[in-house]
Amino acid sequence: SDAGKLLVVPMDGSHWLSMRQVVEKLTERGHKVVVLIPEVSWQMKTTQAYMVKIHPVSYTLEELDGSL
Q1: Would you state the torsion angle of the CA atoms of residues 41, 18, 52, 43, taken in this order, to the nearest 10 degrees?
Q2: ∠ CA 66-59-64 to the nearest 5 degrees?
Q3: Cys-Cys with 38: which of 6, 52, 57, 64 at CB 3.0–4.6 Å?
């Protein structure tokens, strides 16, 4: 089968925990995956498993924590 190219713009938190497994499996199967993550995040980090692009945000980690 042909591999595809995917751009993933995930939500932080539990949404990302589920999506990360899907992204890793897609990469293992030969798909080119780019994950766009904010520079301030609870759980999204850079990795060698897939390409990560980081975008700037206007909030701090403390503000993110306070949004709960």
Answers
A1: 20
A2: 25
A3: 57
- On the question of pLDDT at 49 being above 70, the answer is yes
Strand ranges of the sheet holding 5-8, from the earlier edge strand across to the other edge: 5-8, 32-38, 51-55
Q: What is the pTM of this model?
A: 0.79
Q: What tokens appear for 40 in the block?
A: 């301030």
Q: Quick check: 38 and 44 in contact, CB under 8 A?
A: yes
pLDDT at 11 over 70: yes
**DSSP strand E in the chain: where?**
5-8, 32-38, 51-55
Arithmetic mean of pLDDT over the chain: 88
